[in-house]
Design brief:
single chain; 120 residues; mainly alpha; Helix Hairpins; 4 helices; globular
C-alpha cells in the first residue's frame, strides 16, 4: 500500500513519526534551530510568567513558535537545494537567501511584538 492511500490511525501514526524524525534531524544538524529552541525554552515560560493579557501571551508565544517553523522550512529548502547539487547556481542561492529572509522577518516580528507588549 502506498503512503498516499493510507487512512485513519495508520496515516496519523506515520505523519506523527515523520514529523518527529524531521524535528530530530533539524535538532541534530541545524545549529540555528538548536539556538532558537533554547530561546523558545526561555521565552515561552517567560511569556507565562509575565503579567500580560491572554491575547498578548498568545501573540508572544506564537511569534516564538513561528520563528522555529520558518527555520524548519528554511532548513528544508536548503536540504533540497543541496540535494540537487553543490555547484553554485543563481537560483539555488536565491532560494537559500529567500528562505533565510523568512527567518529574519519572523525574528524581527518577534522582537517587535515582545517590545510592543513589554515596553511601549
Amino acid at each position: 500500500m502506498s503512503q498516499k492511500t493510507k487512512h485513519g490511525f495508520k496515516r496519523l501514526f506515520n505523519a506523527t513519526r515523520f514529523s518527529y524524525q524531521g524535528l530530530q534531524a533539524a535538532f541534530k544538524t541545524e545549529a540555528a534551530f538548536r539556538e532558537e529552541l533554547i530561546l523558545a525554552c526561555i521565552m515561552i515560560p517567560l511569556a507565562f510568567w509575565l503579567d500580560v493579557s491572554q491575547i498578548e501571551r498568545i501573540l508572544m508565544i506564537a511569534c516564538v513558535v513561528l520563528v522555529m517553523v520558518m527555520e524548519l522550512i528554511n532548513s528544508a529548502i536548503e536540504a533540497v537545494v543541496d540535494r540537487i547539487g553543490t555547484e553554485h547556481h543563481e537560483l539555488s542561492g536565491k532560494a537559500k537567501d529567500i528562505g533565510s529572509a523568512t527567518v529574519m522577518l519572523t525574528m524581527l516580528l518577534t522582537v517587535y511584538v515582545w517590545a510592543e507588549i513589554l515596553f511601549l
